[in-house]
Amino acid sequence: MNPTHGRAKRGVKLYQETIGKRTKKDNVAAGYLNGIILALCIYSWATDTEWFCLWFEHTLIPLLKPNSVIVMDNRPPRKLRNALKNLKWREVL
């Protein structure tokens, strides 16, 4: 990570190559069950509803045991909540 601040003598400009706050950000999607990480996916693009639903239905759900409880750490947007209601994952559990 590049520093965003530096020091120089009074009246002297400080020059440094920096990319500021435009750094690459990694996102993580995963499940956690009894101390085991399931369906880990690390990605650098923005999450959209279609991608998340595909990952959720085809990667995470098949790894869960029947009657599992799913807790999401961020409240999903209304569009995502509606999409999750329409998935057929309830039949898998």
Q: Approximately what portion of the residues adopt beta-strand conformation?
A: 15-25%
Q: Whole-number average pLDDT?
A: 77
- Termini separation comes to 43 Å
How many individual domains?
A: 1
Radius of gyration: 21 Å
Largest sheet data: 2 strands, antiparallel
- Kindly name the structural category: alpha+beta
Total beta strands? 2
The helix tally amounts to 3
Helical proportion?
25-40%
What is the helix/strand order? EEHHH
Q: Which residues sit in consecutive blocks of at least 5 with pLDDT less than 50? A: none
Q: What general form does the structure show?
A: elongated
Order of strands side by side in the largest beta sheet? Answer: 1-2
Structural overview:
There is one protein chain. The chain is α+β, with helices and mostly antiparallel strands and about 90 residues long. It has one domain. About 25% of the residues lie in helices and about 15% in strands. The protein contains 3 helices and 2 strands, in the order ββααα. It has a two-stranded antiparallel sheet with strand order 1-2. β1 and β2 form a beta hairpin. The longest helix is centred in the middle third of the chain and has 12 residues. The protein is elongated. The termini are far apart. The model has no long low-confidence stretch (mean pLDDT about 75).
